[in-house]
Amino acid sequence: MGSAQSSSTHKVNEKRSIGKEKYANFDWDNLGFSLTPTDYMYIMKSNKDGNFSKGSLTPYGTFEISPAAAVLNYGQGLFEGLKAYRKEDGRIQLFRVEENANRMKMGAERLLMPSPSVEEFVNAVKQTVLANKRWVPPYGKGSLYIRPLLMGSGGVLGIGPAPECTFLIFTSPIGIWYKDGSKPKSLLIEDGLSRAAPGGTGGVKSITNYAPVFEAVNEAKAKGFTDVLFLDAATGKYIEEVSSCNVFIVKGNIISTPGIQGTILPGITRKSVIELALDFGYQVEERSIPVEDVIEADEVFCTGTAVGISPVSSITYKNKRAKYKTGAKSVSQKLCETLTGIQSGCIKDTKGWTVLVE
Ligand SMILES: Cc1ncc(COP(=O)(O)O)c(C=O)c1O
């Protein structure tokens, strides 16, 4: 997701009147990736038994939290990311929302937090989207990014889980990542700093996985790269993932991606791409991928909710740059067209991946 908003933007939006119009008064043709606050957020709190009370919608804005909250002191927090898409007929749909609910549950178990049930999660997402529906961009202009958070909001002094957790959802409209679907990434393989270690939290969407990669990503960007491809922390020989997306390599008819072994995030786009690739007749391998295989690949691409399916034009490792096929006839382009077609409703969803928000 894009950069943080300025506090002045926030104030402007707080004053914004909430009308009944179909679309917010916004320049949809110039929608970017920075935070655009919308009208409402959703909040729900757990009680001492770990059950959540009935949640509610409240105007988007700041909220109070204990200075001793476990999320602030010990990083007891998770986030999710998914999108609501406007179909050509004006209706709104979500993509694989239950998968996000399940991933949050898995993360909550790892961080000793109660989590909303799948039903509570899906209902909360739907309510939040409906309350902010004038911010779901017109068909073809982008999507409404939905950010569910789960945090240890209760105060603790000694290291330990919070006595109370807060589930919160906010949203922001975002543009189409690359309007022509093909602006490729140039990646730098990072062999100094690790993202996730075996036994750590790399396999869940813990907030603590992200700030530690800022340094490597900023340094790579300063050198002109788009992002960093991290290696496994144990041996430094195998590729794992990019700072906020999964990675695939293509060699002939075989598409490979690192297996899920606790150090990479089980991406929902990754899972969908594997299924689509099998449907197209490719052989798909989930395995440990040594750097040498990446260097020799025909194609490399990244997958994630924010980036969609994003081709990689080059990867640099120890000052050597490998280049890859991108563009109209690439495998990633074919997969991208199908995935975005299903997400936006212009390709029939035969897999039950989408759900209308009504
Ligand atoms: C570290 C990391 N890997 C992969 C992904 C892709 O996951 P998904 O396809 O579910 O968005 C994300 C984004 O959520 C991420 O933060």
UniProtKB/TrEMBL annotation:
Does this UniProt record's set of keywords contain Oxidoreductase?
A: no
The regions listed as transmembrane in this protein's record are: none
Q: Which GO terms describe its cellular component?
A: cytoplasm
InterPro entries xref list? Aminotrans_IV (IPR001544), Aminotrans_IV_CS (IPR018300), Aminotransferase-like (IPR036038), B_amino_transII (IPR005786), BCAT-like_C (IPR043132), BCAT-like_N (IPR043131), BCAT_family (IPR033939)
* GO terms, biological process: amino acid biosynthetic process; branched-chain amino acid biosynthetic process
**Out of the domains of life, which is the source?**
Eukaryota
- Post-translational modification N6-(pyridoxal phosphate)lysine, affected residues: 205
Reactions the enzyme catalyzes: L-valine + 2-oxoglutarate = 3-methyl-2-oxobutanoate + L-glutamate; L-leucine + 2-oxoglutarate = 4-methyl-2-oxopentanoate + L-glutamate; L-isoleucine + 2-oxoglutarate = (S)-3-methyl-2-oxopentanoate + L-glutamate
Which major enzyme category is it? transferase
Q: Name one GO molecular function term.
A: branched-chain-amino-acid transaminase activity
Write the record's keywords in alphabetical order, separated by commas.
Amino-acid biosynthesis, Aminotransferase, Branched-chain amino acid biosynthesis, Pyridoxal phosphate, Transferase
- Pathway connected to this protein: Amino-acid biosynthesis; L-valine biosynthesis; L-valine from pyruvate: step 4/4; Amino-acid biosynthesis; L-isoleucine biosynthesis; L-isoleucine from 2-oxobutanoate: step 4/4; Amino-acid biosynthesis; L-leucine biosynthesis; L-leucine from 3-methyl-2-oxobutanoate: step 4/4
Q: Which cofactor names does the annotation list?
A: pyridoxal 5'-phosphate
UniProt feature coiled coil, ranges? none
EC code:
2.6.1.42
Family annotation (Gene3D superfamilies): 3.30.470.10, D-amino Acid Aminotransferase, subunit A, domain 2
UniProt lists the family membership as follows: Belongs to the class-IV pyridoxal-phosphate-dependent aminotransferase family.
The name this protein goes by in its record? Branched-chain-amino-acid aminotransferase
